[in-house]
């Protein structure tokens, strides 16, 4: 029995882990300060806040409201790492209110009701107000946001919501009307460097105990890697300081780049920044700026956008903004899509860049886009007119007896394949949709149409004033008629030349 116990105990002794080596200096600091540097170094007063002077500068309405104790419900909208959580905590401290944090990711209506009940109790017993900070408020659905309405209305809670998404789209109107929206700006590189300098020199809450000097270029490199995000910058600084301590050197640019690895770009493929960037790309192409087109295309690709989404948008730009001024643009964008599909990333991205430059440098016309909008508006707004008899097919004797196909003129039997017959329903007779621009190859189409109508009618009636005063169909914002007049208006089909 004793022999058996000795064998068991021997196996247990062998299974015991070896004692760890002495913890290095940086490890002991981390063990004594479990909170990340970004959390430890948060400002303790409004004067310590870096940036957001448009909100917190002397005499600004938000600062006056906080310092006077007249705090109100609000939505703080801004990019990550601009101080939304910190400001909410400071506001509560200034007005001596109970501060409660609430995550829209982890909580629901049940938790909201419990917090409101506690807030009502504090208000009744001790006249103490409650600041309820809701992070990621845009993640709440409509029903969850509705739960706040009566309590914000009656002042039971002071709601401070934080969001990186446009509250116009993500917060319900009823809640928006009860809150003020404050827009936080992205921190400048100078702001981020100031925050890093403070953290590096603070022996109590920061990294001052490490006694590591930082080259100014290294702090600037971290600020650029963080791209206006103070939290990200402090996280990089903490890793870089650890690397410097292990190496026994100061904080250099090389260590900063090693700690930061790759720059993280603010981007959300389903959020507002996605639409901001694709809008910038589209407008750069439309305005004939290949440099802007390349920059915004690169921004989206580097941020992780789906390249095939960008390929589809380039195809759209070819149809909408280049059109028949350069019909080859559509073929170029489709070829770029196929090239990316064939090559993948990163080689295929060059084909997308080539297509973007081609579109930006191509002559522009939205005449087909405007014409199709006008035709579609007539389809929606007017009765479904029957097809004129002479345009109908007549495959049976009965149909021929009924007049199907009667008087139809076969174009190939006419000189130069030109015939003079109507192709619109009687109610739309004389309607003009397509008004070609004089730019690029569309100028040749314009001249051809002028010649055709001159031969058909002895003069192009489209160049004369017409009595059709029907207003043009509504078009989406940002798309104006290439002719300067709505289709169907009294102006000439052909746009007038602008004075030089």
What report would you give on this structure?
- With 500 residues, this protein is mainly α.
- Among the domains are: 132 residues, P-loop containing nucleotide triphosphate hydrolases (Rossmann fold, 3-Layer(aba) Sandwich); 90 residues, Zinc Finger, Delta Prime, domain 3 (Up-down Bundle), CATH 1.20.272.
- It is built from 23 helices and 5 strands.
- The N terminus and C terminus are likely disordered.
Order of helices and strands: HHHHHEHEHEHHEHHEHHHHHHHHHHHH
Helical segment count: 23
In total, the number of strands is 5
What's the overall geometry? elongated
Structural class: mainly alpha
Quaternary state of this entry equals single chain
Intertermini distance: 111 Å
Unreliable runs: 1-33, 460-500
Measured by DSSP, the beta-strand proportion falls in 5-15%
Question: If you consult CATH, what is the topology of one domain?
Answer: Rossmann fold
- CA-atom Rg in angstroms: 34 Å
Mean pLDDT: 82
The CATH homologous superfamily of one domain is termed P-loop containing nucleotide triphosphate hydrolases
CATH classification class of one domain: Alpha Beta
Range of helix content: 40-55%
């Amino acid at each position: 029995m004793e022999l058996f116990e000795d064998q068991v105990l021997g196996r247990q002794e062998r299974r015991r882990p070896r004692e760890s080596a002495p913890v290095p200096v940086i490890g002991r600091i981390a063990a004594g300060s479990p909170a990340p540097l970004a959390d430890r170094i948060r400002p303790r007063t409004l004067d310590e806040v870096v940036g957001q002077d448009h909100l917190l500068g002397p005499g600004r309405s938000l600062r006056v409201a906080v310092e006077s104790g007249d705090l109100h419900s609000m939505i703080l909208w801004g990019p990550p790492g601009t101080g939304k959580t910190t400001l909410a905590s400071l506001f509560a401290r200034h007005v001596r209110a109970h501060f409660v944090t609430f995550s829209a990711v982890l909580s629901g209506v049940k938790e909201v009701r419990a917090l409101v009940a506690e807030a009502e109790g504090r208000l009744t017993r001790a006249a103490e107000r409650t600041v309820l900070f809701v992070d990621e408020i845009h993640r709440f659905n409509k029903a969850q946001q509705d739960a706040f309405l009566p309590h914000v209305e009656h002042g039971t809670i002071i709601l401070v919501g934080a969001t990186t998404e446009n509250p116009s789209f993500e917060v319900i109107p009823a809640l928006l009307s009860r809150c003020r929206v404050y827009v936080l700006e992205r921190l400048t590189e100078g702001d981020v460097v100031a925050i890093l300098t403070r953290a590096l020199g603070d022996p109590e809450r920061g990294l001052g105990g490490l006694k590591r000097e930082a080259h100014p270029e290294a702090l600037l490199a971290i600020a650029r890697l963080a791209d206006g995000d103070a939290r990200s910058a402090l996280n990089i600084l903490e890793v870089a300081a650890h690397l410097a301590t292990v190496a026994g050197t100061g904080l250099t640019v090389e260590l900063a780049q090693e700690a930061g690895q790759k720059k993280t770009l603010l981007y959300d493929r389903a959020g507002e920044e996605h639409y901001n960037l694709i809008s910038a790309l589209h407008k750069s192409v439309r305005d004939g700026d290949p440099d802007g087109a390349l920059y915004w295309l690169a921004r989206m690709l580097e941020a992780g956008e789906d390249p095939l989404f960008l390929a589809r948008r380039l195809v759209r730009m070819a149809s909408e903004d280049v059109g028949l001024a350069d019909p080859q643009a559509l073929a170029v964008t489709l070829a770029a899509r196929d090239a990316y599909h064939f090559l993948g990333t990163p080689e295929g991205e060059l084909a997308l860049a080539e297509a973007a430059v081609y579109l930006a440098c191509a002559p522009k016309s939205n005449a087909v886009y405007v014409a199709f909008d006008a035709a579609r508006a007539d389809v929606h707004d007017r009765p479904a007119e029957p097809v004129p008899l002479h345009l109908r097919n007549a495959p049976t004797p009965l149909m021929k007896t009924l007049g199907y196909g009667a008087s139809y003129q076969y174009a190939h039997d006419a000189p130069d394949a030109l015939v003079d017959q109507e192709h619109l329903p009687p109610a739309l007779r004389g309607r003009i949709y397509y008004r070609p621009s004089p730019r690029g190859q569309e100028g040749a189409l314009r001249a051809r149409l002028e010649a055709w109508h001159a031969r058909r009618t002895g003069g192009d009636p489209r160049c004369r004033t017409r009595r059709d005063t029907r207003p043009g169909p509504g078009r989406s914002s940002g798309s104006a008629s290439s002719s300067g007049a709505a289709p169907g208006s009294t102006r000439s089909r052909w746009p007038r030349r602008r004075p030089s």
